[in-house]
Amino acid sequence: MNLIVFALLALLAITAVAIAQLRELWAVIMFTGIYSFLSASWMIILDAPDVAFTEAAVGAGISTVLMLSTMALTGKAEDIPRKSSVVPLFVVIVTGATLVYGTLDMPHFGSPDAPVQVYPDPSFVERSEADMHGLPNVVTALLASYRGYDTLGETTVVLTAGIAVLLILRKNEDEQDDTAPLARNKSS
Amino acid sequence: MTLESVAGLYNYWVVIFLMMTGFYIVLARKNLIKSVIGLNIFQTSVFLLYITMGKVEGGTAPIVPPAIAAAQAHAAHGSDAGHAATPHVEGAHEVAHAALQHGGELASTTTEIIYSNPLPSVLMLTAIVVGIATTALALALVVRIREDYGTVDEERILELDRGE
Amino acid sequence: MIDAIFAHLPILLIVMPLVAAPCCVLTGNGRAAYALALVVSLLTFACSITLLEETLVHGVVRYELGDWSPPYGIEYRVDIFSGFVMSFVSGIGAIVLVYAPLSVRDEISESKHYLFYATYLLCMTGLLGMCVTGDLFNVFVFLEISSLSSYALISLGRTRRAPLAAFQYLILGSIGATFILIGIGLLYQMTGTLNMGDIAARVPHEHGPRTVLVAFAFLTVGLCVKMAVFPLHTWLPNAYTYAPSVVTCFIAATATKVSVYAFVRIIFEIITPGFAFDVLPLDTELMLFSLVGIFIASIAAIYQDNVKRLLAYSSVAQIGYMLLGISMATPTGLSAGIVHMFNHALIKGGLFMVAGCFALRLGSVQLSDWKGAGRTMPLTSLAWAIGGLGLIGVPLTAGFISKWLLLTSAFEAGRWPVAALMLLSSLLAVVYIWRVVETLFFAEPSEAAANATEAPLRMLIPTYVLIGATLVFGVWTSYSAGIARQAAIALLGGTP
């Protein structure tokens, strides 16, 4: 088990670095799909099959398709130019160091007396057995009932994105020469 | 820094490394699509952070085996209504009896199986959907920008804007 | 029946615009969608006012969604502070909608109108949801609803820079949201709960402060992006400049304020001022950043030739004043910060409406095209002058009330240099407001301005409602500064 986890973590790290380094957009998109797939695999090991399933479908599936179609729409992918990036690297290292500093007081991985595991008491699993009349999957119970309004919110986000994409991509029927307002609104 | 804490925390550190790689890709953006990809990696890694929190040693996915679940539902009903219920699920006879004997103390039967915390999973299901919605919107904007500027290279777009 | 509706007000407030949005899409017709959006936004405003009344009389209103009590379920919690913010957000949302149709017809193509109003309602849903919810993760969900819809709204601007501005905002905004998500996750990990009140009770200040500290840092940075605090404000000038006028009015008046609201909630209810200001030097840092931000943004505003961009930089500066008040952490200071959220929403909403009127009549928001417009569009120009006085903080305007409270709290805390710097910074506001006033009234009319006619009443009246409100609330303060003070005292743990 441990070996698998190590292998997965190493693969995840390698994939992420590869994505950062690669300059060919097509390859980057493929590696992003692989990254999502690897994350989904690790999620299975971390006892979250529902999330793994969704990540595999949405992350590795839908978003890869979306990116590929965007690439198709935006035409022949130009190779991404290489440029030195000291400032981003600095910001990232500082942020990462802050996060590592934050982990020092964290409950250890898998610790059964972590606050997350002991609170609330009775736990969601115990509560849902009484509340949900024998629904086996506690994640479903939480998603649909206890935190149903988050799910409504999530649906609203999808609705928003749908309307937004329509708004953005729909052609203005009275598409006049774009240069006129441009010239007028030109900033200094 | 003891070896024990390293063993207990290295998972988080790997996740942090992943998050920061994603963050770096966004910040060092040269190409609009690639910055969207960076955002994707960043968010996916945050999902991993949450899921890591929910895991418990020796635990299993928060799905109660259907037999036990059905039996317990019956037990709960039975004690509510004041009569003993007959479990329908064949394999669950034993467990159901145990549950009935314990009456309302359902907790005692579940302690045998340790479940990982379901809440992070639920939160991340929501976050995944939010993430894909953001990606879709961002890519729509990229398509639109490409139509207007003819390129998805950030530098060239800025040059075009300065040049007019 | 009435009682039944009353009991569900907190959720009605969210559900009404949320359900109306897909209905707007289904109508497929700009006019019908507009009518629906207007009615719903007015109803929402009525709901928020009723709720605010309720909290003033009976105290905190709690609403357990699906009857699951926290920490299992999500809880909506309305107190004076959230009631106050909700009221002005929904109020301005409604007034901007009254103002909208002519400007929208001018700037957005006909076929998109119904989608535009649907997105507008969704944006309002998100902002109100952030105010009403008592659950930290729910805040994130609503934040994303409001952000996604505002990216879409901003991208609707006429020029090709609008989608680019929206994209830049999207990238920065999503980084901010992800930081917030990390912060929420770390807090959850240390407490095992997502309910704000519950987190506050369980957050370990002695054990494991390092994780809490980092959680707090991430929440702060994430929200600072959303609030457009200097130096994380870079998305704001472009977004405000290239968005359609109506969108700028609404977003400038409400979106950043709601983020300030969330920030105040997190500092004062979850982290507690004791930890934030005594253990961490957050107050000095906030004060430093806000003062630097006020000066740099005000100076940048002076050099702008695009009026919307000028107002955008001024918004960055004004956020600085709000944070300055909050960083004082005294009842007076905090109430100054809170009341300035309200006053600035009125003033900036009004001024952007004026800019929208000029954009309609002159077809431009470049200062050079506004030359001499004061002669042909006197009422619109007068509105600018009055709003400008409010922005500067001249007595008898709402802006004066907030600046006065800020000064008082600076004196109370014995921070003379801060008070002096604040007065100095108001002079910068005089400069950039005066530049526009001078152009409007004392310059030779440009060709466009000479042929312009006064803005239509349909737009002038809502503009004057907001601009007039800055005068009303400059004199009569029991419903602005009075409520803000009660909210501040409650946040600081006292009884109002």
TrEMBL record, chain A:
It holds the Pfam family MbhE. Its main location: membrane. Keywords: Cell membrane, Membrane, Transmembrane, Transmembrane helix, Transport. It is found in: Cell membrane. It comes from the Bacteria. It is a multi-pass membrane protein. InterPro entries: CPA3_Na-H_Antiporter_A (IPR050616), MrpA_C/MbhD (IPR025383), MrpA_C/MbhE (IPR046806). Residues 123-177 form the MrpA C-terminal/MbhE domain. The chain crosses the membrane at residues 28-46, 53-73, 85-104. This is DUF4040 domain-containing protein. It comes from Aporhodopirellula aestuarii. The lineage of its organism: Bacteria, Pseudomonadati, Planctomycetota, Planctomycetia, Pirellulales.
TrEMBL record, chain B:
It is found in: Cell membrane. Coiled coil: none annotated. It comes from the Bacteria. It is a multi-pass membrane protein. The keyword Transcription regulation does not apply. Keywords: Cell membrane, Membrane, Transmembrane, Transmembrane helix. The chain crosses the membrane at residues 12-28, 35-53, 122-143. Pfam families: Oxidored_q2 (PF00420). The keyword Cell membrane applies. InterPro entries: CPA3_antiporter_subunitC, NUOK/Mnh_C1-like. Belongs to the CPA3 antiporters (TC 2.A.63) subunit C family. This is Cation:proton antiporter subunit C.
From TrEMBL, chain C:
It comes from Aporhodopirellula aestuarii. It is a multi-pass membrane protein. Its main location: membrane. The keyword Transcription regulation does not apply. The chain crosses the membrane at residues 6-26, 33-52, 80-102, 114-130, 136-157, 169-191, 211-232, 286-304, 310-329, 341-362, 382-406, 418-437, 457-476. PANTHER family: NA(+)_H(+) ANTIPORTER SUBUNIT D1, NADH DEHYDROGENASE. Residues 134-428 form the NADH:quinone oxidoreductase/Mrp antiporter transmembrane domain. Belongs to the CPA3 antiporters (TC 2.A.63) subunit D family. Keywords: Cell membrane, Membrane, Transmembrane, Transmembrane helix. It is found in: Cell membrane; Membrane. InterPro entries: CPA3_Na-H_Antiporter_D, NADH_UbQ_OxRdtase, ND/Mrp_TM. The keyword Transit peptide does not apply. Coiled coil: none annotated. This is Monovalent cation/H+ antiporter subunit D family protein.
